[in-house]
Amino acid sequence: MYTNLLCYMLISSSILLGCQTSAQSHKATATTKPVDRAAVIADHAKLVHQSYADAYEAALKLQKAVDGFLAEPSAKSHQVAKSAWLTARDPYSLTEAFRYYEGPIDAEGGPEGQLNAWPLNEAYIDYVQGNDKAGIISDRNITLDAATLAGKNAKDDEADVTTGYHAIEFLLWGQDLSLDSAGNRPASDFDKGDPIRDRRRAYLKIVTDLVVTDLKTLVDAWAPSNKDNYAAAFAKLDSKVALSNVFTGLASLCGFELASERIAVSLDSGSQENEQSCFSDNTHRDLIANCQGIANVYLGQLGTWRGKGLNLLVDAADPALNKKIESQLQTTQTLVNALDIPIDRVLASPKGSDSRKKMEALVKSLQIQAELFKQVGEKLGLEVAVKAE
Amino acid sequence: MKMRKLTLAIFAPLLIAPAIAGVASHHAHHPDELSGGQTTVFVTNRNAFASPVSNLPVPDLRTFASGNRLFNTNWVIAPASVNKLDGLGPVFNRVSCSACHLRDGRGQPPEGDDAPMMSMLVRLSVPGKDERGSIKPHPAYGDQLNDRAIPGVPAEGRAVVKYEMVSGSFADGSTYELAKPVYTFKDLAFGPLGADIQFSPRVASQMIGLGLLEAVPEKDIEALADEHDADGDGISGKVNRVWDVMQQKKTLGRFGWKANQPSLKQQNAGALSGDIGITTSLFPKQNVTDAQKDAGKTIAGGEPELSDDDLSTLTFYTRVLGVPARRNVNDPIVRQGEKLFHDAGCAKCHTPTMQTGEYEIAALANQTIHPYSDLLLHDMGDDLADGRADWDADGKEWRTPPLWGVGLFDVVNGHTRYLHDGRARTMMEAVMWHGGEGEASREKVRKMNKADREALIKFLESL
How far apart are the C-alpha atoms of B271 and B283, rounded to whole Å? Predict the structure, then answer.
């Protein structure tokens, strides 16, 4: 798959630069035609908008599946809802490359924490092994509405997460208490006609609807047609500021969030508490999509769509650096797709195991990517930081 | 598709903010903004205290992230099959570091009458010193009131605070109010505390710049001391010599409200033991007294409950939390306030600038930093006294707390409570509580006109 992408990329960049499809031509064309920063930035904004739109469409399907499950709870409709959640995760994970510069996703009041906070204290939401009366669901004194749940999200403790994808995940799968499977909460937890189960049903509906609403605000914030939104402000930014932001997003996702927070910490702790999608055992897909999202931004691509990527700018300034980055992105793709799964079993394996070594190699590759993106900052005169938030 | 009005309302303020946020990080940094030197982080939102130093090498972010997880870990009761981080209690105050140091930030007193302490604790002792010169713990309650416990073990008791209002006025006739705290203790599990009890309520301190402070050479701190006021300027800063558990000798203390801890590792191990009930190789005994017989029978979560590796990781994290840059340094009123700060003599204890020396974390070494503290003990007068000596600190002495970050408590932690027990509800109240060695400066502030007082506060808010 990746070879095709490389092919596409070479073709598209050479079309832009007006020459034959060969590596050597890149060097020659660097001096013949300057790369238009504004055009790259504009295509980046298109990429962001479409990525959020894809995530939104998938969330609408998740909402439909959840509504169907709640209308007629059964093992089958439960499975449909779970599948829809899994399907909705990939397009969202692609969008994490747009974080870390206080864009719509994570400016003050932005929805990132409400959408994707983890790890979460299961007992804060619902019953857990050893405490069947735990959580907001069992506490009838707590009003179940969007404002209340949103207000409680990570309020006094980062891990008191009440909303977002992982709250939905916990409600659909329940705790993952076994290395041999994901969580196996029964569909009957959502049967009608019992006060607590009714609260659980209401809770699931509220948090699913919230994900949809939040994604819609992101789609609208990046919509190209709107004159008053973030996309309009982004288009007016000094190109150095816009590009600094974009590269900071990439460097931070690689160097801190992925390499450290999501992978290394879970390796170091050996605890599945620290893997992102621990209830569904879907963490490997999160990692694959996160890595793909970084490549998407750098290369200016999404699915079959090809735009002008950041690689054109880097190639024009320092072809060797660009080559290093493209090569590292490919290495990362290979490594992340070759991880042993499920991740919780990797974490449970002894130190020095082969499966751990594979994850460690991925950590290294992502760290190298982060350093390379910082070097881009120096080459292009940008401020690129690895943010740890 | 048409945007809903609600969405517009949410995003209207964000239109400008994101654009400016992008731009703000790109102008050249004024040296006065660099409170942490090259380690300074440029964050002004609620994560302002939670970022690693900006010059931390990428591979070290791994240790930072692991330490962050440990800091946020909710400890559970032993034995816990799933979780190796078990051994909570048997008595404790909160179940995680982050519970009190929320977002690596500043604690506050309880909100409302009879409300529990969420980010605050009360240290205890009885008169006298032990053979090394440390405090004497209460025979039943130990050296700290643990207001929570695991099932089957009694919580030690709880503190309740009420405030008596005390009026004061500035020279220009305008008035202010100080909230004097009065503590009572309820639900005591082992009988009364006794008439000779010494207690000291303390809020959690913000966690920024601690490695930088650890990296200031001892001789530089000693050079600032003038215990007997030889220079006759009214300031008599004093070093606290405290027991270093790892070195097994007395060394310079610099952490804690009375500078009673010599290193971050010992501070962390002490807090793990006293506040959460977690043992480490530094403090391997469970934090219980003979009176707590039931507690003694509970199961430990390993020996020790936090391994040396994990304690090192946690300590690394606490060393490298970055100091946020100052804001509004070029605002003329802030500049005026800065001048007034110096004119009033505040800088004699709240030392603006220090240098770090060599340090095992290269990113923190040889930095010019602006903590606004000399890290020394000062007599702050009777009104602020806790009457509880701690090593060489007497019952009226407190370490000058660093002022860096003080202007961001409201953003990070949603409150504006200052001083060791959070009694001051505004910065000006905090200033007006300064007695003892601080009295002369306080009186200079009292004589300032309104514009000058406001400028001084604006300067403090920029830190």
Answer: 10
Measure CB to CB from residue B62 to each of A121, A229, A264 and give the nearest one: A264
Kindly report, residue by residue over A282-333, the tens digit of the pLDDT: 999 999 999 999 999 999 999 999 999 999 999 999 999 999 999 999 999 9
CB contact under 8 A, B65 and A220: no
**A338 close contact with B: CB closer than 8 A:** no
Instruction: Decide: helix, strand or coil at residue A350.
Output: coil
For chain A, give every domain's residue range: 2-380
Residue of A nearest to B45 (CA): A108
Query: Rounded to a whole number, what is the distance in Å from the CA of B286 to chain A's nearest CA?
Result: 24
pLDDT tens for A13-35 read 444 333 333 333 344 344 445 68
Could you give the CA distance from residue A207 to residue A111 in angstroms, rounded to a whole number? Answer: 13
Task: Identify which of B173, B49, B383, B281 has the alpha carbon closest to the alpha carbon of residue A388.
Answer: B49
Name the fold adopted by A2-380: A middle domain of Talin 1 (1.20.1420)
Residue B244's Cβ-side half-sphere holds a number of Cα atoms within 13 Å equal to 16
Question: Can you spell out the DSSP letters for B342-386?
Answer: HHTTGGGTS---EE----SSGGGTT-EE--S----EEE--TTT--
Whether the predicted pLDDT of A261 surpasses 60: yes
Q: Measured between CA atoms, how close is A368 to chain B, in angstroms? A: 9
Would you state the pLDDT for residue B154? 92
Length in residues, chain A: 389
Res A269: pLDDT: 87
Best to test chain B binding among A52, A156, A389 (most B CBs inside 10 Å): A389
- Asked if the bond preceding B90 is cis, omega within 30° of 0, the reply is yes
Lowest mean pLDDT among A13-27, A236-250, A356-370: A13-27
Query: A209 touching B, CB under 8 A?
Result: no
Q: What is the pTM of this model?
A: 0.86
For residue B47, the chain A residues in CB contact (below 8 A) are 389
* pLDDT band at residue B33 using 50, 70 and 90 as cut-offs: very high
Q: Quick check: B424 and B305 in contact, CB under 8 A?
A: no
Predicted ipTM of the assembly? 0.79
| φ and ψ of A100, to 5 deg | 80, 10
Residues of chain B in contact with residue A217, where contact means CB-CB under 8 angstroms, are 7, 10-11
Q: Do A216 and B7 touch (CB under 8 A)?
A: yes
Whether A227 and chain B come into contact, CB under 8 Å, resolves to no
**C-beta atoms of A233 and B19 within 8 A:** yes
Point out the residue among B16, B58, B99 whose CB comes nearest to the CB of A370. Answer: B58
**Are B67 and B317 in contact, with CB atoms under 8 Å apart?**
yes
Q: Helix A75-94 crosses helix A283-299 at what angle (to 10 degrees)?
A: 30
